[in-house]
């Protein structure tokens, strides 16, 4: 995790007179280029790190410069602790515990209560109320494989339930819209793929190591693409499901119809996913326009009714 690595690099530079980029890269199992970017970030934060070229060279904090506990403001320490604390509830590990301990060592006694109050103002818990209990243990397995650059083998189900055996190189854990994914290079498809963890079974770390290849980050922002694909439909909803509909569109698209209902201009794409969203609202939602979407909903309802009549 970057914040953990930055804090650790600062602590190492405070303890050592000088350390090389390659040594830091080996220590944190990242590339020297990543270390150079981290050093730039530390410099931008106001800690003067010098680069000494040649044999015996490396990075060092400028002579006579010392970080005192007042360097980090209350807001700085609160933000760092808030991020690390909430991250540790999702992904457990000794490195996060160590990072938390190191950051807490910067807190002066007279600011401890104020910082603790601010840290506790936000709490993130992404563990499910119910559902797939493999998510947390699989996160731990993937994290180990990422750390050790080891291959992962698993069975993967597509959206139709078809399973295939896969082996892949892990490169990144991704949390998107409360769902966990991991991005890796699939040896079966010979390409990078984004795997949804809830669709994985029989996940195992292989003994085989892999040499990281040039990494291609996954595309996670589809706002521009969706904007060109989505249309607006008019739905009438009961006020009891307003909070659920707000997950998909802003309040400005709501207008009162009577004391119990709203008319909503709802973003929609004509595919199974969006039709299923409408069906999830049950009899609290009626599509008013356009006619062809309303007709398709009636056809699907008829097919469901037919299924239960047989």
Question: Brief description of this entry?
Answer:
By secondary structure, the protein is α+β, with helices and mostly antiparallel strands. It has helices spanning 2-15, 21-28, 32-44, 74-90, 94-104, 112-119, 135-148, 223-229, 242-245, 272-280, 291-309, and strands spanning 49-52, 58-61, 150-157, 163-176, 179-186, 191-196, 200-209, 231-238, 254-256, 261-268, 285-289.
Give a structural overview.
One of its GO terms (molecular function) is DNA-binding transcription factor activity. Residues 2-61 form the HTH deoR-type domain. This is YafY family transcriptional regulator. It holds the Pfam family HTH_11. Keywords: Transcription, Transcription regulation. The protein has 310 residues and is α+β, with helices and mostly antiparallel strands. The protein folds into four domains: 2-61, Orthogonal Bundle (Arc Repressor Mutant, subunit A); 74-119, no CATH class; 135-209, Roll (SH3 type barrels); 224-309, no CATH class. 40% of the residues lie in helices and 25% in strands. It is built from eleven helices and eleven strands. It has helices at 2-15, 21-28, 32-44, 74-90, 94-104, 112-119, 135-148, 223-229, 242-245, 272-280, 291-309; strands spanning 49-52, 58-61, 150-157, 163-176, 179-186, 191-196, 200-209, 231-238, 254-256, 261-268, 285-289. The strands form three sheets. It has a five-stranded antiparallel sheet, with helices on one face. A four-stranded antiparallel sheet has the order 9-10-8-11. Strand 1 and strand 2 form a beta hairpin. The longest helix is centred in the last third of the chain and has 19 residues, at 291-309.
